[in-house]
Predict the 3D structure of the following.
Amino acid sequence: MLPERLRDPLPEARPHRISPIAYAGGMLALGAALLIAKPKIGRVPEPKQGGDVPRRSRVRRAAQVGRDGAQTFAPSNVTDSIGRSLMIGGTALLLTRILDEMSGRDGQ
């Protein structure tokens, strides 16, 4: 059995404790940039390019109903969704790291 002193993990170096904060800041910055810039590459085209007139075939009518139902949930710009996700993830990472630092080391 190892002596107690050898079993205790060494405290992490300061750069390893701070790097998640820098990473979270990068996520927040990139997410904000995507939300502000709204690049055209992320724009989703209008799904009703074939028109709205009811189709004769049952399969085509079902496909049209499915298309119209999916449009409700589809984003107008995919980069908005990615930007929001980055901002939420960055905020969660930042809060987790800050609360971890505030909680202190084991035994303190």
User: Anything to note?
Assistant: The first helix runs from residue 4 to 7.
